[in-house]
Model the fold of this input.
Amino acid sequence: MIKWPKIYIALPALNELETLPFLIADLHEQTYKKFVLYVCINQPDDWWQLTEKKNICENNQQSLMYLKNITSFHIEIIDCCSPGYGWKGKQSGVGWARKTLMDTINVDAKPDDIVISLDADTHFKPNYLDTIIQSIQSHPKAMAISVPYYHELTIDEAANRAILRYEIYMRYYAINLWRIASPYSFTALGSAIAFPVWAYRKIGGISPMKSGEDFYFLQKFCKTASILNWNSEKVYPAARFSDRVFFGTGPAMIKGSKGDWNSYPVYHYSLFDNVLKTYLQFETLFERDIDLCMGRFLNEQFKNNVWWFPLRNNFKNKDKFVKACKEKVDGLRILQYLKTNQSEIKKTDEQCLFEFFEQFYPDAISELKLDQCFKFNTLTTMKLNEIRNQLMKIEEDDQKKQYDGSN
Done:
């Protein structure tokens, strides 16, 4: 039986007067019309007293007026930017904006309604809302969708090179997590998340981080049940330099454009293999004490050499114990492990990518015409795009297998 849920679109906006008309145009074109747009225009309240922030304050006020004048579909505006209404103290940033939006929607919506998280600089096709409904209703056990994404290139060569390099990092990372069957093999983009309201209630909502709230949000879903990583339509976020958050696409592009990719390395595939080895050891760990492959790192992180003892005491079933271990050694811990150990590999990002292709996708080397001595900074934008697209194809093949095999 086909259901026709109401879709609630959660949109944080800060200094977005230029991009909002394009998003509104995309919403006008949607074939599915049963939706309402919730917009939280936000900023710290003390920006009104800062000369260097006055232009953003004025931009936000113009955005308020622009949205208030739209009558072609339902828009709920949450004013967190006018004098006296902005963020105060530690409650600030896009994480608080998303929480404010989603908590407000949660009060208004029914359990089977759907929330779609977007950003103002994101483009999507006319059947996007329809495809989200189809994906969620055909996979009723899935908690959420980490929607496929693709950054379209522009006339800005520096931005193109930066976003392509960043996408190579993100897609390579997700592919390797998928390869080792990690439950955390998602890409966290605030503009590319959708979920039914009942799932939001089940996990207790979103945590209001200043940055990275999308990562922790999806990880929270993953610890409860599976999420989807595929949808028949993508979102197309803009590739733009931005420092409004501490980490993520915008800051990565800024650092990368200056030649600094240290925070976004191409981790050697063997480190992911070590995570897999640790996963496989959890069954034995249930029965007896053993040295884990990631043991030294985990002991240091948890400041406890027998951190699994409470799990063993609390979970008398082996499968539940293994699940509990994977929840403890979660996506954040995996990332920390990779960062901690990458320097010991003594290989460049290019060598790591080449060896990954050589080990798992040797045909890609000939298709891309790569040699062992290639350098990202000397490749043409076209060649970087070819590498990005090759990784996207590998990633999509994995995503489709999960989509087709789950329900």
Observations:
- The longest strand covers residues 35-42.
